[in-house]
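Fig. S4 source data, part A: sequence.
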Amino acid sequence: FSKPDMSRLRLAAGNAIVKLAQEPCYHEIITLEQYQLCALAINDECYQVRQIFAQKLHKGLSRLRLPLEYMAICALCAKDPVKERRAHARQCLVKNINVRREYLKQHAAVSEKLLSLLPEYVVPYTIHLLAHDPDYVKVQDIEQLKDIKE
């Protein structure tokens, strides 16, 4: 396969997982490994793959169709080499947090049952994705840790 073909395949795979995850019956059968591989599409070497995947992800999150753990993928955008993409990812993350909080305010009567929508619950998923990021393999590398912090 050529490089453009491989990029299209990675994008199709990531988008397919996101689409499946929007259906509760399929979300349950997506393995942790598939979720982690899907998350890597946000840091793909190809700019168009990163951009299109991020748009698809944000669309599913803002419509509250995707499970909360998919919001953790946005944190991986901090490594994007394009400053505008990092800023856009941050805006999308803030918007999604606000959408979820507003939804919980409007549905206060059943909010106890909707704890899975709380944006604070995304932190463990974010830590998991960062801990399993293939770009960060040297735990003692201070520069890598500073990169994660930013």
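Fig. S4 source data, part B ends here. The radius of gyration is 16 Å.
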